[in-house]
Design brief:
5 strands; alpha/beta; 32% helix; Nucleotidyltransferase, domain 5; 5-stranded mixed sheet; 28% strand
Length: 117
C-alpha cells in the first residue's frame, strides 16, 4: 500500500478523520464524538473519541497505523502548552510524523493556498 496521510478535526460536537493518498484522494473517513479534552467527560474519553474516528477512517481505507506517513491533528482545547504536551504524550508512538495544533488552524490554513487566512 502506498503512503497515506491522516487529517483529524476534533471538537466538542464531533470528531472527523480523513485518510488520503499523496494526490489527496480520500481513501477513508471516520466520525465520532467529542474530542476536546475540556469538553469530554475526561481527557482520556476525548483521546478515545479521536482514536475511534481514526480507526474508522483507517478501516474504511483498508489500512493500519503503519500505513500513515504523516498526520495533522487540529484539536479543540489546545490553548496552552500543557494541552499540546498532553496530546503529544497521548499520541506518542502511534503517529511518528505528526502536527498537533488547535482546531482553529484548520480553517486558517484551508482558506488560502499560501496559508494566509
Amino acid at each position: 500500500m502506498s503512503a497515506l496521510y491522516l487529517g483529524v478535526d476534533a471538537g466538542n460536537s464531533k470528531t472527523a478523520a480523513l485518510v488520503c493518498d499523496v494526490t489527496g484522494t480520500i481513501a477513508g473517513a471516520g466520525r465520532s464524538g467529542c474530542g476536546d479534552i475540556y469538553g469530554a467527560a475526561t481527557p482520556e474519553a476525548a483521546v478515545a473519541e479521536v482514536q475511534a474516528a481514526i480507526d474508522a477512517a483507517l478501516a474504511q481505507a483498508g489500512a493500519g497505523r503503519a500505513d500513515v506517513a504523516g498526520a495533522a491533528f487540529r484539536l479543540a482545547g489546545i490553548d496552552w502548552p500543557e494541552d499540546r504536551a498532553y496530546w503529544e504524550s497521548a499520541l506518542a508512538g502511534r503517529y511518528p510524523s505528526r502536527s498537533i495544533l488547535n482546531d482553529g488552524y484548520a480553517a486558517i490554513r484551508c482558506g488560502e493556498p499560501s496559508g494566509v487566512g
